[in-house]
Every structure is written in structure tokens, then in C-alpha cells.
Write a structure and sequence with these properties.
By secondary structure, the chain is α/β, with parallel strands linked by helices. The chain is about 45% helix and about 10% strand.
Amino acid sequence: MLDWLRRLRHPRALPPIPEAAWQATLARYAFLAERPAADVERLRALTAQFLRDKQFHGAQGFVITDEVALAIAAQAVLPVLHLRGGLVWYDDFVGIVVHPSEVVAQRKVVDEASVVHEYEEVVAGEAMDHGPVMLSWQDVLASGVTSEGGYNVVIHEFAHKIDMRGGDADGCPPLPPGFAGSRNAREARAAWLGVLQPAYEAFREQTIMAERFGAEPPWLDDYGATSIGEFFAVACEAYFVNRANFGRDFPGVLELFDRFFGPSPSRS
């Protein structure tokens, strides 16, 4: 790592991200640069704070460089850019583990008949409740060219972190007082799910029709059809990296997310 990133570890110092390194990050991940100038400046400041407070670890011999840390930090900060509390949403963990590519994870689930099923799943990222975030650098790097498809592994996993602030990753993050005109937390949650749940069910139906009957597949990543929690994370990816396509297919969810995440990009 370069000296500036080491200096971020000093508790009383917060040196600015070098201009060349910052501009290289914006050039690679164009959806960051497309935001209003004030947003980009705020993103830069919060990215420096994120880098100061989090610890990056390379797995399988992977080396954490300035490029790696900056790319992940800038994209992770984007969802909390205008959320009240900012980086407080991520204060339940410190570690970010980066693998060179996708990882084969061992899974174990118990079905309704109490039968244990073990299987392997290839994952590009994973967010642990009150634990670290795991990411595949191959997929992080690909985020610079996959915005047309609404794909972004960093935003996906950090959306799960936001969701988990309210407990389980159930698609409904903690909502601010008075959200959508609600009088209490129960009403706020009902208002949120009143929009997200039918959108998820319609998306799931569209995915099933495409898989089983050859219908037109959805534009959004079909992994979002596995649960409403995954739908929330997948929808967040598209919302932040390709607002135009997301708004075309999910106008109700776009409005919902605008209310929650704050000021939207100037682009249409």
C-alpha cells in the first residue's frame, strides 16, 4: 500500500485521497462519476473515513493494493451517502476479506421435515450478520463494465448489511420515523413491504415463466427471485448503477428507494 493509505490508520489524521487515485477509481466505475458534483465530493470524504475504519484482508494469497481498497470502499459508501448516520450503518463490523475470484461455500440447511441438506454454492460475495464482508475481486473489478446489467457485487453485499441492521436480511431495513407518513415502526414496515413484496412476487413469477416456459427473462439478476431479502439487495444494485433501466421496470420501488436512500442522481 502507498503511504497515504497507511496514514489513514492514524486516529487523528485523515489525509485526502490522492487526486490521481481518486480519478482512476471514478474512471473505472463510471456510475460513481455520473452523480452530482456535491455527491462525488461527499463520496470521496466518506470513502476516506471508511478506509480509515475498516481492515482489508487478502485471502488465498491475494494482495490488497490501493486500487483494491479504493474500489471497494467507494462502492460500499454509495448506498449510505445520504442515509442519516452515514457510515454508522456499517459499524457492526471491521473486516473485509477479498478473494481473487469466486469462492465455493459449504452450505447446510434443515428443511421443514428436519432433514439436513448439505451442498456447495459458488459465491462472489457474502455479508455476515455482525461479521465481515467477503468479496471476489474478479467480480468487484467487473462492476466497472456490468452496470448495463445492473450488477454490482459490492453494493449487493453492503445492501445486506443495511438490511441486517434491523435483524434478519428480510428485505426491510430499519426505517426512519415518519417514513411514508407512518406513525410508528409497524406502519413504516407495512408501507415498505406494501411496495416491495408485490414487486418481488411479480419478479419471481416472471423469472419462473422464463425458466420453465421460455418467456422473456427479466432484466434484473434472477438471483433476486430466491427470497425477498435477495430481491432487495439485487434491486439496490440496479438502483445505484443503472437508475434508468431500474425505474423503467420498477417505478414503485424506485420511488420507495428514493424516499429511503435520499437525493437521487441527476441523471434520468
